[in-house]
Amino acid sequence: MTATGQPVALSTKALVAGYERDLPIVRGVDFSIRSGELVIVLGPNGAGKSTFVKAVAGLVPIHSGATFLGDRDITSVPAHEKIRHGLAFVPQTENIFATLSINDNLLLAANILPKEKRSRRIADLYAMFPDLASRPSLRAGQLSGGQRQMLAVARALIVEPSVLILDEPSAGLSPKIVSEVFSKLKAINETGVTIILVEQNVKAALAIADRAVILVEGLLRHEGPAATLADDPIVAELYLGARHQSKAVAS
Ligand SMILES: Nc1ncnc2c1ncn2[C@@H]1O[C@H](COP(=O)(O)OP(=O)(O)OP(=O)(O)O)[C@@H](O)[C@H]1O
Questions:
Q1: For position 93, what pLDDT does the model report?
Q2: A biological process (GO) annotation for this entry (predicted)?
């Protein structure tokens, strides 16, 4: 599906955000993503990528500027309400309950839904994630890294979000598993879910993305189609030479 001509699904205007009021980390970001797009957020260590998506999700204080989900201003909407409005966020860590079963993880996430919709939605998710469906009583802590991420994604999808944001879902995974996780994300995107993905795994992420944006020191410094970005000299200068992922892109 091409997102050209689709309405804007999520946007930020001059977003300034950070953990302490006098210390902005995100320093005025204008960002937008169209419905159905898959956009990756790249940038050097400490650029503010995680802070940016956490601020959008309502988990880091916004100092000024605004965030919109479609036309709705969600800047001041608390994180749990944003989920109800269709904005789901998968944090990098602590995104599942390791001591609970797969099924209980999904049941807990489903609490946000009206009672009568819960079991139908969980059945839909099991259909989408057969690896989880095959052993619902397994403790989530016993899952492999990739399967844990899939459980975290399944939990986020409970509300049938219009926009799904993921903070480095590939962290700590082997290249083979990264490619499985990314294929699944692409498949989810192809069902119409708009996806924003913070990634350090540049090559694999560019392969599934429509577009990439590059944050440097809290500012959106560059953006472009994923297909051409890896060859872009500005990108190479700003980012690809700046960290170990340069190897992955060059290979
Ligand atoms: N909980 C926190 N409290 C205070 N400062 C933080 C916190 N988390 C991150 N920071 C600071 O915010 C800045 C940006 O960090 P952030 O994690 O957003 O960057 P990033 O681009 O996602 O980096 P990485 O690629 O290393 O994950 C860093 O200087 C970091 O030290």
A1: 86
A2: L-amino acid transport
**How does DSSP classify residue 61?**
-
Give the span between the Cα atoms of 234 and 222, in whole angstroms: 8
**What is the domain class of 8-86+162-250 according to CATH?**
alpha beta
> Best mutation site among 16, 26, 50 for ligand 1, i.e. most ligand atoms within 8 A of its Cβ?
50
In degrees, rounded to 5, the angle at the alpha carbon of residue 86 between the alpha carbons of residues 83 and 164 is: 90
Quote the pLDDT of residue 161.
96
Residue linked to tokens 């001591």: 99
Residue 25 in contact with ligand 1 by CB distance below 6 A: yes
Q: Which of 71, 70, 74 is nearest to 15 (CA)?
A: 74
Give yes or no for residue 51 CB within 6 A of ligand 1. Answer: yes
Whole-Å CA distances, 196 to 6, 11, 123, 247:
16, 11, 25, 23
Report how far ligand 1's centroid is from the alpha carbon of 220 (Å).
Answer: 16
Element (H, E) at 167: strand 163-167
Ligand 1 atom 9, closest CA = 51
ipTM of the complex: 0.96
**What residue owns the CA closest to ligand 1's atom 17?**
50
Q: Are 182 and 205 in contact (CB under 8 A)?
A: yes
The partner residues of 161 in beta bridges, in order of sequence, read none
Strand 72-73 to 219-225 pairing: unpaired
Return the DSSP state at 142.
G
Under-50 pLDDT residues of the chain: 242-251
Tell me the one-letter amino acid at 170: S
User: Is there a contact between 194 and 148 (Cβ–Cβ < 8 Å)?
Assistant: no
